[in-house]
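Annotators were shown the component list below and the corresponding predicted structure, then asked to write short factual statements about the assembly.
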Amino acid sequence: MNNLFQLAGSLPEAECFEPLARGEKVLIERIVSSGQQTPAGQWYDQPQAEWVVLLQGQAVVTYEDGDRYTLNPGDYLLIPAHCRHRVDYTSQQPPCIWLAIHADLCLAQ
Amino acid sequence: MNNLFQLAGSLPEAECFEPLARGEKVLIERIVSSGQQTPAGQWYDQPQAEWVVLLQGQAVVTYEDGDRYTLNPGDYLLIPAHCRHRVDYTSQQPPCIWLAIHADLCLAQ
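Structure shown to annotators:
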């Protein structure tokens, strides 16, 4: 049985992006961060929305419009397509475990 | 900030299916179970694949072909479309918190 909380004994220096399942316009991936942050002055600008939940650790996500979110385990965000954002902080101990779903998504009613 | 681990003070008797985000052929939902199981002799038979992770509690999922999975927090499964399956057990304390993504998915390489 695969488990999202299972990590390699020693983490690489770079963030790990691990695709778990995919479809035509859908990608489910686990992301493991341990102290990395988006380089200064850079923004993610993605063609698809991203629904992301932090499952372990603590992280800070900032939007270009100034909104700033401190995420703790279980906290989730729907980042709209082309909403410029960056990751300003990820904890090292424990490492951050994220689950991200990339797809053309909007909030469910 | 919305949090997957946040539950209402008292849970309803039925399982809760809460859509969180959706797209044309994608649905992300949280499921909260607390002791319910699929009624005897019944099987889920879904037109789309379901990627599902158990985030809290313990649960048992059985496939019609006999495979049986005991899930603990972090364990995940990709249930193919039309793969008949049932939930044979869900813990009450703590309640089971699942995150499910319904879409046309296959395992990522």
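Statements collected:
1. Chain B has a mean pLDDT of 96.
2. Residues 48 and 81 of chain B are 5 Å apart (CA to CA).
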